[in-house]
Structure formats: structure tokens, C-alpha cells
Design goal:
This protein is of the alpha/beta class. Helices cover 51% and strands 9% of the residues.
């Protein structure tokens, strides 16, 4: 390349650099945002809506007292520092914005116009507050159960679902997301949309016992569950689960405490799944019906979660790490609000925004199958319900 060609290339590079040079900002702070402290949503709405508990609950998805307690827990972590340039955003406003984002499913741009904060500021607030909600609530709202906790969970399942020695129901759901950058087909699922998976175990009070978040949409329930730390601890007997005990007064065989799931999960001595096939005997049909009565609690829980935190009603359009943080935050908030404020029954009847995870294939162990037969015998003898025959016909 001669000198003239080099000069031409250099000139072209200079021209390109000038044309690509970023334009200077029109405003340091946009006039619309400058009036945030006098006309923003938080300024004109927050104090007024606190006077009306029902309206506040509908807006923030929790009671005023629950909001105040959560705010006290978060204040040390999300309180900023005032500078000479501008005062910091208050922790009350940060939490209020985050709860509205999670509860309504609105987008950052909607909050940008109503709260008069920059879109990047809104995004940073959501990330910060979700992170610290999970940090603060995970041990308080999703603690590792003790032996006494497991016994109480089993007692409640027996009382509410008529299923003895049951310590949880497990299932997984697809959470819709916008395709992550440079992710290929990792998050593309069998229903032809992008997702990450929320795998959860719950008790009979519609509260999470354990969650596993962030697996790619292409995975199935059984694969995620068997690869989870919870499953490894379950198989290694590291969860303080009580020793097996008989479920029948006539059959002295000790039966282990079990988790109920659908056909996606392999049958073991610790996991109960329904009998497969179409031409089932009456005893097997009754077992499947009784198992579904216990397993429905996890389906109802997903309905309560999605109807309460409507961020799940649409594809979540944020980075993959923030998606996982949002899901974990909503699960922790679900337990927090469920414990303090209860739930609406109608929310258990539908599961908007979630999709089933495909079933994997796992063989039943011989020991697990024998314990399933013990349950099936019990449900057709001394443990039978007066209406169960009419429910399977």
C-alpha cells in the first residue's frame, strides 16, 4: 500500500470517527424529570394511598403494616447518600417502585413517566431492591426445615389432603422471557418461546419450602430436580427428615416421608408419582386421585404467585441474571405476604403466565414401587374417603 492510499484510509477513518461521535446531551436533567419532587407519582400519591388500606394493598400487593416492616428490614441496605448535586432517592420510594413493577407487570418506561425518574435509574433501583429483598427474606421466609417443621408439614398434608407421610409437592413451570443476548437456543422450549424454569416444592399452606431458579427452558423437570442441591441432600439424608413410620394401624411396615410429584419425576422411596397407563385398576386410580389431591397444592401456589405478582403475565425483558433475581424475589415475597396477609382463594383457580415443563423419562426403583403399593393399599382400606369412588368414575 503506497503513501497516497494510506493517506486516503487515514482520512476516511477520521471522517468516520467524526460522524460516529456521540451527540452532546440536550439536557443534563430533562425538564420533565426535574419536577419529580413536586409532581412525581411518589410525591402526589404515596401518602394519600396509605390512608386507604384496600387501595394500598391492591397497588403494592401487601398491607401497609407489611410494607413498613419490610421497609425497616431493607433500609440499612438501600438507603443512599445525599450529595451536593442532588438528594438521594428515599428507600420508601425505591421499595414502592419495585413492588409496583413486580405487582403490575409494567415496563421500566411506564415507571419512568409516572415517577419521573430516568429509565436507567429505574432499572438500577429494581436490581438493587430485588437483590436485597432476597438477601433479607431468604432465611426468614424460606428457611431450611428442621425435623419438627417436617413433622408439622406432614401433619398438615394429612389433615388437608388426606395423604399421610407427605412433606411436600414438587413441580416446575416455564417463566416467559425475551430471548437473552447471544444465548442461542438454550432458553428455547418445546412450546416455542424463550423461558427459564422455576422448580418449587411447597407445603399444604401454599408456601414455598424450596425453589430452584434459572435452569434453561430446554430442560425438563426431572433433570432439573435430580441436578439440584436439594435432591442431593434428599438422597444423602441430609435434610433432617424424620425416620419412616407406619401409616396404617394394621400394617406395621414403616413408610418413609415422601414428596409427591407428577409423571415427570422418577418413582423412588422419597418421591411418589402416579401410576402410568390408561387401563388402571380401581386401586391404582384411587391412588392417583389421592396423590393429585396432595399435588394440587403446588399448582394452586403457582396460581397465587402469578396472580399476585403480575410480572409473570408477560415475557420479562431484562438480563438473565436479573430474571433469576426477580423470580427469587417474588417467591420470597409470596411467603412473606402469605404469612402476614393471607391469600385470595380465586387466585388458586388459574395460573396465567406459567407453562408446564415437559416430562422426562425416569424408571421407578423397585423399593419406591413397593412403598407406592403400601400407600395404594392404605387408600382402599382404612384410609379410604367416602367420596373417592365417585371421584374416579
Amino acid at each position: 500500500m503506497d503513501v497516497e492510499e494510506l493517506a486516503i484510509v487515514a482520512a476516511l477513518l477520521i471522517i468516520k470517527r467524526k460522524t460516529n461521535k456521540k451527540k452532546s446531551k440536550e439536557y443534563w436533567v430533562h425538564p420533565l424529570l426535574e419536577e419529580r419532587r413536586s409532581k412525581g407519582m411518589f410525591k402526589i400519591f404515596y401518602e394519600d394511598v396509605r390512608k386507604y388500606p384496600r387501595k394500598f394493598f391492591n397497588y403494592a400487593r401487601m398491607s401497609v403494616s407489611s410494607f413498613d416492616v419490610l421497609l425497616c428490614l431493607l433500609k440499612p441496605h438501600i438507603t443512599g447518600i445525599d450529595t451536593n448535586m442532588r438528594p438521594c432517592i428515599s428507600p420508601e420510594e425505591k421499595l414502592f417502585i419495585t413492588l409496583r413493577y413486580l405487582g403490575s407487570g409494567c415496563k421500566f418506561v411506564d415507571l419512568h413517566y409516572s415517577y419521573r425518574l430516568g429509565i436507567s435509574t429505574i432499572a438500577e433501583i429494581i436490581r438493587e431492591v430485588c437483590h436485597f429483598i432476597w438477601v433479607v427474606l431468604k432465611d426468614m421466609c424460606l428457611p431450611q426445615p428442621t425435623k419438627e417443621n417436617w413433622l408439622k408439614i406432614a401433619k398438615d398434608f394429612h389433615l388437608r389432603a388426606n395423604f399421610p407421610n407427605c412433606i411436600g409437592a414438587v413441580d416446575g413451570k416455564h417463566v416467559r422471557i425475551i430471548k437473552p443476548y447471544n444465548s442461542g437456543s438454550l432458553c428455547y422450549n418445546y412450546k416455542h418461546f424463550f423461558s427459564v424454569i422455576l422448580l418449587a416444592i411447597c407445603d399444604s399452606d401454599y408456601k414455598f419450602i424450596h425453589i430452584d431458579v434459572g435452569s434453561y427452558g430446554k430442560d425438563c423437570d426431572s433433570t432439573i430436580f435430580t441436578n439440584s442441591t436439594f435432591y442431593q441432600k434428599l438422597m444423602n439424608n441430609d435434610l433432617q427428615i424424620p425416620e419412616p413410620k407406619p401409616i396404617s394401624s394394621t400394617n406395621p411396615i414403616p413408610v418413609p416421608f415422601v414428596i409427591v410429584g407428577d409423571e415427570a419425576f422418577g418413582q423412588t422411596d422419597k418421591i411418589m408419582r402416579p401410576f402410568g397407563g390408561s387401563n388402571l385398576t380401581t386401586k391404582k386410580k384411587i391412588f392417583n386421585y389421592r396423590l393429585s389431591r396432595a399435588r394440587r397444592h403446588i399448582e394452586c401456589l403457582f396460581g397465587i404467585l402469578a396472580n399476585k405478582w403480575q410480572i409473570f403475565h408477560r415475557p420479562i425483558n431484562v438480563n438473565l441474571d436479573l430474571v433469576s433475581c426477580i423470580i427469587k424475589t417474588c417467591c420470597a415475597l409470596h411467603n412473606y405476604v402469605r404469612e402476614r396477609d393471607g391469600y385470595k382463594f380465586e387466585d388458586t383457580l388459574s395460573i396465567p403466565g406459567f407453562e408446564e415443563v415437559p416430562n422426562g423419562f425416569q424408571r421407578a426403583t423397585r423399593r419406591g414401587a413397593s412403598y407406592r403399593d403400601v400407600f395404594a393399599d392404605y387408600f382402599t382400606t382404612e384410609g379410604q374417603l367416602s367420596w373417592q369412588m365417585s371421584s374416579i368414575n
